[in-house]
Design brief:
2 domains, mainly alpha, 12 helices, 0% strand
Length: 281
């Protein structure tokens, strides 16, 4: 193999390093890969989501937790852990707040959604960094860049990532199953499952089912519970199960996208020009 040919197959960097750097600081993985513009935009988007969420919630997210659940690792099972740098800053700056209860800000639930979304978006950015690191340096369109968007779409709306990949029947089935479970769980729990204050960690699992949860929370999530709910536990489990099952859907979208990216692309075919006829004198 000649030297120029070998150079074409040199990857941009180490995939693990790129992913870990992105986890610690959004965009850092792409700076490492020599993609500073993309890295800067990623940093602004991901950290911007977290910063706005902190402003809207006044950093009070972890004051939702009961005292016996407050530990140094309380944030590990939250969506915010996908943006480790943002989570560490959050805990160091705000922690568990003051030693007494305070009224929640009016936009508390929206702020908590935004910090959680920051973690999910950065997790998808880690997927993109890991894939970009394995792509050849000189490839104009290596195919890896098309992996992360369907993964993010599959979180935002279960089934949408499969639809974007052309697997429409599977996408419809995932949508019906997962969104159906989320709606059924919400109906059985009479909306009590939608409160992060009431069910901090179950809510985190449910959040993995994406934006349908945001819609349901906006419509039904802030009502007071005035009576015993007969099927509250069943509803809570089903809604959380919808989010956890969507993780399998995300993995399926990622694996399919990577397989397609690694498939050898057919060489462009050029039709040979027919020899021109020479007229005899």
């Amino acid at each position: 193999m000649s030297w120029p040919s070998a150079q074409k197959n040199v990857p941009r960097g180490d995939p693990t390093v790129a992913a870990v750097l992105t986890w610690i600081l959004p965009g850092a993985g792409h700076f490492y890969l020599g993609m500073p513009v993309f890295g800067l935009v990623a940093f602004l988007v991901v950290q911007g989501l977290y910063w706005i969420g902190l402003q809207l919630s006044h950093g009070m997210l972890f004051e939702y937790l009961e005292p016996d659940l407050r530990s140094a690792f309380a944030g590990v099972l939250t969506p915010e852990v996908g943006n480790l740098g943002g989570l560490v800053y959050h805990m160091k700056t705000y922690g568990y707040g003051l030693p007494f209860m305070r009224p929640w800000p009016d936009a508390m639930w929206i702020g908590c959604w935004m910090t959680a979304c920051s973690g999910i978006v950065n997790a998808c950015l880690m997927v993109r960094a890991h894939s970009d690191a394995r792509a050849p340096k000189n490839a104009a369109d290596p195919g890896f860049a098309r992996i992360a968007p369907p993964v993010l779409a599959a979180w935002a709306l279960p089934g949408l990532g499969h639809w974007m990949q052309g697997r429409k029947l599977r996408g419809v089935l995932f949508f019906v199953l997962l969104v159906g479970l989320l709606v059924l769980g919400t109906a059985l729990a009479e909306g009590s499952n939608l409160s992060r204050e009431r069910h901090f960690y179950y809510w985190a699992g449910q959040f993995l089912a994406g934006l349908p949860g945001l819609v349901l929370e906006g419509l039904f999530g802030r009502g007071a519970v005035t009576h015993d709910i007969a099927y509250a536990d069943a509803g809570l489990d089903l809604a959380c199960l919808a989010g956890l099952l969507n993780v399998l859907a995300l993995m399926d979208v990622y694996a399919y996208g990577e397989k397609r990216a690694l498939e050898p692309q057919p060489e462009p075919t050029t039709q040979a020009a027919a020899p021109s006829a020479v007229n005899a004198p």
